From TrEMBL, chain A:
Residues 98-310 form the ABC transmembrane type-1 domain. Its main location: membrane. This is Sugar ABC transporter permease. GO terms for biological process: transmembrane transport. It is a multi-pass membrane protein. The keyword Protease does not apply. It comes from Pseudokineococcus marinus. Residues 1-32 are annotated as: Disordered. It comes from the Bacteria. The keyword Transcription does not apply.
UniProtKB/TrEMBL annotation, chain B:
InterPro entries: MetI-like, MetI-like_sf. PROSITE patterns: ABC_TM1 (PS50928). This is Carbohydrate ABC transporter permease. It is a multi-pass membrane protein. Signal peptide: none annotated. Keywords: Cell membrane, Membrane, Transmembrane, Transmembrane helix, Transport. Belongs to the binding-protein-dependent transport system permease family. One of its GO terms (cellular component) is plasma membrane. It comes from the Bacteria. GO terms for biological process: transmembrane transport. Residues 64-253 form the ABC transmembrane type-1 domain. It comes from Pseudokineococcus marinus.
Length: 321, 267
């Protein structure tokens, strides 16, 4: 198979990965085929495209439409134009949710990445029963968000929780994990980290396989300390993984629901309310569905902004292999 | 150094296991012990009373059956549909291939949370609100597997497919008899990833399932907690029941899950 788009003339042939890989989309493959082949292709794609069209793309367009309506979800609503969006601007709970979602993202993303990288480096080295340790660390990934959150409720209960038991046993004052806003927020973050670090570690472990031992040896010979080797060899080498995780963690955090909804329900006094819990409350409890759809659209725009960044930077690679 | 590393790994593992261990302890502790307020890392006596109480008060077996049925059917649909699409994108030449692939990919970043209100309207209009299908169909509409399937099937030599075509096999036959047998590891990865996701799914089933007897385990768990309130023994007993099947599956077939997550990651 010949590649249709050649690298720019004069480009050094031995540049490492990304630059050398920037060819057009799927050279040779996506071009002409017989009519029969095209028909077969559309037939093979049909079930998937029908499902995606019906249950993802159609609701997406519909959501934008609903966000211009005043409706409780039963029967026809009334068209109110941009009123729902205008209401958002002066809605204290909405802004509180925006701030909380942002704060949650700003804490959970770097923390889960740092912990994940630390754990990956730790479990990548020589260690007895390394496989067992790895299994243990990814175990939370198998536990549902609801169960995780309920375990969180159990551990963080400010009256009977095991954590406060330990804290008091150490002679420290108990923490108001439910009634205190900041403490409740902290408890949600900690439970999320417990749940998410395994995923981050897994991605970093895979990335570390690509860091050649010779690089570390060379750095050691040059007199680099363990920290210097981590900082100047490991961290740059796992850069693509870090970028992927950055995007994934940000998107996850924007959409966080299970843990917050079950652990605190957004309370106390909106201290842990995030965009999706607020949208759920609005849409399915107070049944102001037009307003809830507007919150969803805001969330969509936030997600799109992040996705656009990922798209610009990894598009070519995604398409070419 | 090695001792230090091992010690660090032990600490990290203990921190990870502690909450799960505590769930098990509370689930198997007597009421008196739980109300005693004394912190015990190991209960004086183990009991199945909490488990029995939960089993008699709630349709746990029905919920378990619902979870199994919904997870299996959803995973079967999504894997089949994604494999077909992956084959088309990887091996067939047709107009609009790249554009359609991008459309499918773009839906990956779109979470149900963004469209939940509209999706709720849609399933109501379709007349499936409150049925299993209201959960199954929107959940099965995922392009996650398309991407992995395309990658994997790209690795199958085109010559193999063309040789079968020259021998007179139709596309469906090529797919079923040539491509599919080579895709076993891929199918396992996709299937387990889908099972895990569907088994633990929460936000959408919470909206789509209204009747008690149709609940999946996570929804049932939340419902039960609402009824039991501070009865941690009962809640944790049910939490234990609900997470055990997936935890066991996860440990036994770990390598497929790990591959699934790792491959969905770096590229």
């Amino acid at each position: 198979m010949t590649s249709s788009s050649a690298a720019p003339a004069g480009a050094p042939a031995d540049v490492a990965a990304p630059a050398a890989d920037e060819r057009g989309p799927s050279p040779g493959r996506a071009r002409r085929g017989s009519p029969g082949e095209a028909l077969a292709a559309y037939t093979f794609l049909a079930p998937n495209l029908v499902l995606l069209g019906l249950f993802v793309l159609l609701p997406l367009a519909w959501a934008v439409w609903i966000s211009t309506q005043d409706t409780d979800g039963f029967g026809a609503g009334t068209f109110v134009g941009a009123d729902n969006y205008a209401r958002l601007l002066s809605d204290g709970t909405f802004w509180r949710s925006v701030v909380n979602t942002t704060l949650f993202t700003a804490i959970v993303t770097p923390a889960s990445m740092a912990l994940g990288l630390g754990a990956a480096v730790l479990l990548d080295g020589a260690l007895p029963a390394r496989g067992l340790f790895r299994s243990v660390l990814i175990l939370p990934m198998a536990v549902s968000g609801v169960a995780t959150a309920l375990i969180g409720v159990l551990v963080f209960d400010e009256n009977s929780g095991v954590l406060d038991g330990v804290i008091r046993a150490l002679g420290l004052p108990g923490v108001a994990w439910q009634s205190g806003g900041a403490a409740a927020f902290t408890s949600v973050v900690l439970v999320t980290l417990w749940w998410r670090v395994g995923f981050n570690m897994l991605i970093y472990l895979a990335a570390l396989q690509g860091v050649g031992a010779h690089l570390h040896e060379a750095a050691t010979l040059d007199g680099a300390s363990a920290w210097q080797r981590f900082r100047y060899v490991t961290v740059p080498m796992v850069g693509p993984a870090s970028f992927f995780l950055l995007v994934m963690n940000v998107i996850y955090s924007f959409q966080v629901f299970d843990i917050v909804f079950v652990m605190t329900g957004g309370g106390p006094r909106d201290a842990t309310s995030v965009l999706v819990t607020y949208a759920y409350e609005t849409g399915f409890v107070t049944r102001d569905q037009g307003y809830a759809a507007a919150i969803g659209v805001v969330l969509l725009l936030l997600t799109l902004a992040v996705t656009a960044v990922r798209w610009r930077t990894s598009r070519t690679r995604d398409l070419v292999e | 150094m090695r001792v230090l590393r091992t010690a660090a790994a032990v600490v990290v593992a203990l921190v990870t296991l502690a909450p799960l261990y505590w769930m098990v302890v509370v689930a198997l502790s007597t009421r008196a012990e739980l109300l005693g307020g004394q912190l015990r890392l190991w209960p004086r006596e183990l009991t199945l009373a909490n488990v029995e109480r939960v089993l008699t008060a709630f349709p746990v077996v029905t919920w378990l059956g619902n979870s199994v049925a919904i997870a299996l059917v959803t995973s079967l649909i999504t894997v089949a549909v994604n494999l077909l699409a992956g084959y088309a994108f990887a091996q067939l030449r047709f107009r609009g291939s790249t554009a359609l692939f991008l459309v499918a990919l773009s839906t990956l970043m779109l979470p149900v949370q963004v469209i939940m209100v509209a999706l709720f309207r849609l399933v109501t209009e379709l007349g499936i609100y409150g049925s299993y299908w209201a959960v199954i169909l929107p959940t099965a509409a995922s392009a996650f597997g398309v991407f992995l399937a395309r990658q994997f099937i790209l690795g199958i030599p085109r010559e193999l497919v063309e040789a079968a075509r020259i021998d007179g096999a139709g596309h469906l036959r090529v797919f079923l008899q040539v491509v599919l047998p080579l895709c076993r590891p891929l199918v396992a990865v996709l299937f387990f990833m889908s099972l895990l996701q569907t088994w633990n799914d929460f936000a959408w089933p919470l909206i789509a399932l209204r009747q008690n007897e149709l609940f999946t385990l996570p929804i049932g768990l939340l419902y039960l907690q609402g009824q039991f309130g501070a009865d941690y023994g009962g809640t944790m007993a049910f939490a234990l029941i609900s997470v055990t099947p997936m935890v066991v599956l996860f440990l036994v077939f770990q390598r497929y899950f790990v591959q699934g997550f790792a491959r969905s990651g770096i590229r």
